[in-house]
Amino acid sequence: MFLVSNSLIMQSESREQILKTNLKTILILIISVVMISLFSFGNIFFKSTYLLKSFGELSVDPEIAFTNNKPTFLEFYAEWCEVCKEMAPQVSAFKDEYEKDINFVFLNVDNQKWSNYIQKFAVNGIPQVNLFDKKGNLISTFIGKQDEIKIRNSINSIEKEDKPHEQIINAEFSTIQENKNNEVSPRSHG
């Protein structure tokens, strides 16, 4: 009887060891799958955010753009804007394709430096894309998420000087948030 009991205990301990080993293996496998997924799909999500952050660095200065006798693609955006993030790869592709012939100007609405342009072009929803001919005449305004074909057709017809101004608004846009970073209150100076 003692031998049977010892044998059962040993079998039980052996099963526990196998279960622990299997659980460790499953846990390692799950962690590996999660890590690989984050690495693979995370790049897609983070690419849009990176593109938005780089737009300001890739931008032609607006003063130069409006005086160098080239058409201009002017986009108002913000890094927190989900629609801007969604459209960033498309806008980046336009820039890559047309940058030899068209100025690409990107103005972050959170930067106080651009407030005069924000007011001048009545920006109250982003992304807002304004297309100008080479003389600086406003040809098209796109507000919100846009179909690639609409923007491409406007870019391709930008040289037609007799085209009247067209405004295209999509319901999917972000309203500009009030920037309180530069506000001064009596208590802000200690």
Span between termini:
83 Å
CATH superfamily of the domain at 54-175: Glutaredoxin
Proportion in helices? 40-55%
Widest sheet: strand order? 2-1-4-5-6
Number of helices: 5
State the gist of this model.
With 190 residues, this protein is α/β, with parallel strands linked by helices. 49% of the residues lie in helices and 16% in strands. The chain contains five helices and seven strands.
Could you please describe the fold and organization of this structure?
The chain has 190 residues and is of the alpha/beta class. The protein has a domain at 54-175: Glutaredoxin, CATH 3.40.30. It is 49% helix and 16% strand. It contains 5 helices and 7 strands; from the N terminus they run H-H-E-H-E-H-E-E-E-H-E-E. It has helices at 2-58, 62-65, 82-98, 115-120, 148-156, and strands at 72-77, 103-108, 125-126, 128-132, 138-143, 166-169, 174-175. The strands form 2 sheets. A 5-stranded mixed beta sheet has the order 2-1-4-5-6. Helix 5 links the parallel strand 5 and strand 6 (166-169). Helix 1 packs across helix 3 (82-98). The longest helix is centred in the first third of the chain and has 57 residues, at 2-58. The protein is elongated and about 95 Å long.
